[in-house]
Amino acid sequence: MFTQKQLAVFRAVMQTGSVSAAGRRMNLSQPSVSRILGDLERQFGVPLFQRKSKGVSPTPEAEAFLEEVERNYLVLTNLEEAAAQIARKERGTLSIATITAASLEIVPSALARLQVAEKNIKVVWQVKSSKWVLDFARSGTLRTGFANVLHMPSGMRVLHEGTLPHMCLVPAEHPLGAQRTPLSLRDLRPYPIIGLLGQVADELAVRNVGANIHSPLTAETSLAAITLSQHCGGLPIVDAFTAHYWHQNHDGQPRIVEDLPDYRFAVFEPLGTSASLIDREFQTYLIEEVEKIQAWLSGFNC
Fold this sequence. Notes:
Layout: H1 4-16, H2 19-26, H3 30-44, E1 49-51, E2 56-58, H4 60-87, E3 93-98, H5 100-103, H6 106-114, E4 122-127, H7 130-138, E5 144-148, E6 156-164, E7 167-170, H8 185-188, E8 193-196, H9 199-206, E9 217-219, H10 222-232, E10 235-238, H11 240-249, E11 253-256, E12 263-270, H12 277-297
Parallel strand pairs: 3-4, 3-5, 8-9, 8-10
Antiparallel strand pairs: 1-2, 5-12, 6-12, 7-10, 7-11
Helix pairs in contact: 1-2, 1-3, 1-4, 2-3, 6-12
């Protein structure tokens, strides 16, 4: 059976074309690299390299073997990392960063399904802006991220993504609170509106929507928009995740606003990190909680 060290040395020699260069890359002496290659060739049964005065040249057998090694090397690396996680007792740790929209319901529900308290799982969860979550992901610190994104930057592995409509939370006693059918911006024009900074607020301004359009109320998050509406009046525009949570716990009717830009979101992890089994289980539950919100929206006449 080939060892991880043998395969790593073989890849380094193939990539550098030199025993000494491979040794420098792996912090090994040239005799050590030569010995490991010799052991590998004896196990393989045929020469893998032709020695030259300057460097080495791979044989056809080495070229064919490299294809198989590359195909399986990631799996071996993941196994090695998994073993290290188990040894360091990191299988019981979750590192999560999300925006507020995910913090109200879907993340707590996923953690409850994972039974973090019963299983003594350590949870490090930070709730920040989408920009901060993405920056945090780029650093490789988190294992699972959830953000509102227009375009997913490079360096991320997308686990789930989608778009949902924005919604207006209408009090039960409001003239618009008696129906569940989608609203148009024209329907909202006579009333004070609280928009969300960015695309929503821009669209409201361009379309001249809201009785308070000349002195608009805007908020960075949906939860802030709801709080502002309670103290200053106005109909808050919110994301569907916040709308579902609020609807479960308060009176009023959420209604889809059909001609606002969609709310784009993604669940992701940084490339180059090795997720543990507990990460994968949490990610599965998180995506299932997201899908519940998507199913709930199907009950509205879009």
